[in-house]
Write a structure and sequence with these properties.
Helix content is about 50%, strand content about 10%. It is built from 16 helices and seven strands. The protein is elongated. The chain binds zinc ion. Zinc ion binds next to helix 4.
């Protein structure tokens, strides 16, 4: 991808959070966990939910490190500030700790897989303080697998912790949910995301305009991982400063002004004109889905202006782009 060749590590991996302090935009969860650790009231099971890329499995690993960290001097107890250098922290970061089992329920959904876990919980941890089971996409487990898991969740041995992650919390049985401490990982707010991306770009020695960062942030819809991957592509595309038009082309987005023209044609009922314009945008590389999303956002923005005019301020840097829309990728979804 870049001149650094083989040593090149994708940004999403390179800047994957290693500590709670690195986890941006999840302040409520971090505060709750810190209090629980400080009061020595650490739950037996956690469940993280949120859209993809908000850091569920990353958080699971950080909790696992915090639970098993022994500190640089080998004498530390459970902490919300894992040292990152002890044998446990290092092995967990690299995904190769014998007492931290990671399983993807999407590929192992059967009762047999869960039975394997259940049989192993009674053995003590091989080297760490806790034996930790991280089950990703836990909602994919079969009913019989959930039932088998439930018995263990009711009375887990004290040396065992479960950390579940799911994108679809509604599919997780209440009986399981009620035995877990639940954390809802939020979509990262646009301002927080832009600040994060801008920090990464600076560290990478890459120049990128704020408008380009705003476009990436909007496309990532609150997912730090997606945003970082897009930033990666954007800065490897451009020589010198990466600009908004470059990012727009990369994302298959039509020019903002042209989408407004198209919106105008649709509202006027000029079907033939609108179809010709859409065809032209498609020919210029715009992704039809992105165009539709843009149209939906404009509709949403105009609704906001009509209902709450005070929110309709525009930003001087991009007068066609309303602040209310740019700053609320999640709010826009209600219009879709
Ligand atoms: Zn450590």
């Amino acid at each position: 991808m870049t001149e650094t060749g083989q040593n090149y590590q994708v940004l999403a991996r390179k800047y994957r959070p290693e500590t709670f302090a690195d986890l941006v935009g999840q302040d409520a969860m971090v505060r709750t966990l810190k209090n629980a650790f400080a009061a020595d009231r650490i739950a037996q099971a956690f469940i993280m939910t949120g859209i993809r890329g908000t850091g569920k499995t990353t958080t699971a690993r950080i909790i696992a490190k915090g639970l098993n960290c022994i500190g640089a001097d080998g004498k530390g107890g459970p902490t919300t500030e894992p040292c990152g250098v002890c044998e446990h922290c290092v092995a967990i970061s690299e995904g190769r700790h014998v007492d931290v089992m990671e399983m993807d329920a999407a590929s192992r959904t059967g009762v047999g897989d869960i039975r394997e876990i259940i049989e192993s919980v009674h053995y003590r941890a091989a080297s760490a303080r806790y034996k930790i089971y991280i089950i990703d996409e836990v909602h994919m487990l079969s009913t019989s697998a959930f039932n088998a898991l439930l018995k263990t969740l009711e009375e887990p041995p004290p040396h065992v912790k479960f950390i579940f992650a799911t994108t679809e919390i509604r599919k997780v049985p209440v009986t399981v949910l009620s035995r877990c401490q639940r954390f809802d990982l939020r979509r990262i707010e646009p301002e927080v995301m832009i600040a994060l991306l801008s920090k990464i770009a600076t560290r990478e020695g890459a120049e990128i305009t704020e408008e380009a960062l705003a476009l990436i942030t909007r496309a990532a819809e609150g997912s730090a991982r997606d945003a970082t991957s897009l930033l990666d592509q954007a800065i490897s595309h451009g020589a010198g400063e990466t600009t908004a038009p470059q990012v727009r082309a990369m994302l298959g987005l039509a020019d903002r002004g042209r989408v407004l023209d198209l919106f105008d044609m649709v509202l006027r009922g000029a079907a033939a004109e609108a179809l010709t314009e859409l065809q032209a945008q498609y020919a210029d590389g715009a992704d039809p889905l992105a165009v539709l999303r843009d149209l939906a956002e404009i509709t949403h923005w105009i609704s906001i202006i009509k209902i709450t005019p005070r929110r309709s301020r525009t930003r001087p840097s991009d007068p066609t782009r309303p602040v209310a829309v740019r700053n609320s990728p999640s709010a826009c979804r209600c219009a879709l």
